[in-house]
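Lab channel / #folding
Pinned by the channel admin:
"Please post every new chain as: sequence first, then the C-alpha cells as a reply. Keep commentary short and put observations after the output so the thread stays searchable."

First post following the new format, from NK:
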Amino acid sequence: MRFSLFKKEWGLFMGLMALVVMGGFFAVSSGAWHIEITQVMRVLFLKLGLFSGSVDTVQLAIVWEGRLPRVLVAFFVGFSLASAGAIMQGIFKNPMACPGIIGISSGAALGAVVAIYLGLAAASLFVLPCCAIIFALLTLIMVFTIASFRGQTSVSTLLLAGIALNLIFGALTAFIITLSTHEFDVGRVIITWLMGDLNNRSWEHVAIVFPTTFVAFLGTLFFVKDLNILMLDEETAANLGVNIKLARNALLFFAALQTGGAIAVSGAIGFVGLIAPHIIRSLIGPDNRKLIPLAGLLGAVLVIYADLLVRLIIKVDLKIGILTSLLGGPFFLYLLIKHRKRFEYL
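Reply from TO:
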C-alpha cells in the first residue's frame, strides 16, 4: 500500500514536471515569430556554455531576452501562489483559504499601486517589487497585532482582521485609481497591473521573484512537520513539543513573502493558491511534506498554460489575472457548495 502511494506521488511529480517542460518549450518556441525546438535548444546550450556554434542573433534575442524570462516568471509566480495557498489552507484548516484571505494579496497590490502612482516605480525596476513585498509583510504584522492578545493569537480574529483589511486596502486602491484617471498613462499602467500581466518580463523580474520563492520554500520545508501537527489541533501540537506561535508566525511570514514576491512581478493573479492545493490534496492527501511542493508545481503549470492561452489562442488583450479569476470563481463556488454542511447556520 505504501509503495503504491509512493509510486502515485512520484508519477504525479513526473507528470507535472513533464507539463512544465512541455509548456515551457511550447511558450518559448511559439508566437508571432515561430522558432524550431532545435533552435531553442541551440540557444539554451549556447548560453549554458555547452555549444560553441553560431546562432541567429534575432532568434537568440527572442528566446533568451524575451520568451524564456516570461516562462520562468510564470513558473515562480504559480509555484509561489500555490505553495502559499497550501500553507494557508493548512494553518486555517480550510480548503477555501488562499493568500488573499488575511489581506496579504491586497496589501501587496496596494504597495505596488502606490509605487506606480507616486512615480517611484519609474526610478528603478526593483522599487515596485520592494514596495509590494514590504506592504505584504506590513499587512501580516497588522493582522497579527489586531488578532493577538496577551501572547495568544486567535485564528478567527485573524480571518476577520484579514477581511477588514481586504476591504480597506481595496478601497484605498480604488481611490488611487480615481486620482490617477487624469493621468492616462499612470492609470493605464495601474489597471493593467491589477489585472495580472506577464508581458515584457525580463531577467530582472526573474531575479526578483526567484529569491523570494526559494527562501520561502526552504523555510516552509523547515516547519512543514510542525504544520502537519498543527492541522490536528493546538493542544496536541503543544503536547508534542511544537512551538505553536513560532511555527504559525514563521509559516505565515513565508506565505506573505511568496505572495508579495509573486504579485510584485505579475500583478494580481487570483485563485491559483486556491485551486492547486485543493486538487493535489484530493489526489495524495493532506501531508504537507508532499502537498506543498506538488501544489507549487501544479500552480506553475496553471500559470504557464494560462499565459499560453491568453498569448497564443485568445485573440483579444485578455490579461492572465482575468482568466484565472474566470476559472477560479466557479471553482470557489463549487467548494462553497461542497463544504456547506460544515458551516454553522443561525
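NK: Residues 98 and 277 are 9 Å apart (CA to CA).
TO: also worth noting, The chain has a mean pLDDT of 83.
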